[in-house]
Amino acid sequence: MDFHQISEKFLNLLKRYYKEIYDDFSESDLDEIIKLRDEILDFGNEIDFSNIISKNEEVEDLNTNDIKYLLYSYIKAETTRYVRDHNVPKERVERRNDLNEIMELYLQFFNNTLEIRNTIFKDTLDLVDNSQIKNLFIEESEKKIIKDTRQIKIMRFKKIKELKSSLSLFFKSGFNLTDESENRDMILKAINLFFLESIEQVSMINNEINILNYAIKEEFTKTSENGDKRYGDNNINNINNKIQKNCPPLNIKHIAPNIRYLTSKENTSNTGFTFKDINNGTAGVVINDRENFYSKVFGPSHTLPTISIAEAADMELKEALEQEKSSNIARKNKEERDQILHDKEYSKEEEEDELKARSWDDWKDLNPKGHGNTIRNRG
């Protein structure tokens, strides 16, 4: 194939990935996804990407048509994850092996993008909170000290939402715009968007692997205690020691609501496994509440607002008007009370005159006019 045919074929793979997996309104058929994954793997076997993109280059030195090939390892990881998540094996060890393989594919994507300098924006690197990714791929000078992991997750979620909104038309156009400069900018934005989303995927995979490691350890421990004859005692002890070294004690905080193994639609059993909090020794059970957890898999890690900024402003304005109205009524009532008190106030002289007038009225009531003028009293 010539370069034009290679480019067209890869663009076709990107279009199908968006349509069948990434698009929120896609109704994917598993057989079609498997076919897409196989074609992506075949494409990687046919093309030697080292002839197109050299390591340690700067993105400014790359041709616009070549930058899109940095997305190959991403769509390879995504299609593999999708297929494996919809064919979850019954054995936990097999599932853990699948997750480790998927993890390696995402790490390959991180490696490919970070090898080309300036491909990943500075503000994107600041949103990396995964220590494994930082230690493997990010230079010390570019690392940012993370003080609040939760805040970083919130900022990353907002950045993903912002990039998705700006790339919507680019994705629907088939990852190819007529204007070369605009097309280049959009491809770089898409790489940064998928970089951030891959961090989220790696975080979920790590959580699931921790759960599986603990479950496998518990399973072998119970087998050893029950004296299962399927395994020799020495073999069980060796396996337990190996798991003990590779699997740190699981704390309650490791139980995340976005564990695909427990929430997979293919995992129809409702069984769980016990765990013990390493801080206080409290025992508990992780139950496979599939439907409840499944609805939260892709949910944000923080509480979303329930009203818009405009609605909040209207509420504040309404409260301010009500407070002002109440203040006016209170002020008016106070003025009325003050006026009444003022009207009832008398000076000392007015009070003496009033008392004198009252005494005179009382005397006149007791001594009506003409009282005491009888014939006997006449001279």
UniProtKB/TrEMBL annotation:
Give the molecular function GO annotations: protein phosphatase 2A binding
Per the UniProt entry, what are the Gene Ontology biological process annotations, in alphabetical order?
Answer: regulation of dephosphorylation; regulation of signal transduction
Top-level taxon: Eukaryota
Residue stretches of biased makeup (Basic and acidic residues): 332-347
Q: Which Pfam families match?
A: TAP42 (PF04177)
Q: Which GO terms describe its cellular component?
A: cytosol
Q: What are the start and end residues of every segment in region (Disordered)? A: 324-354
What InterPro entries does its record include?
Answer: TAP42/TAP46-like_sf, TAP46-like
Protein name as annotated: TAP42-like protein
Supply the source organism for this entry. Cryptosporidium parvum (strain Iowa II)
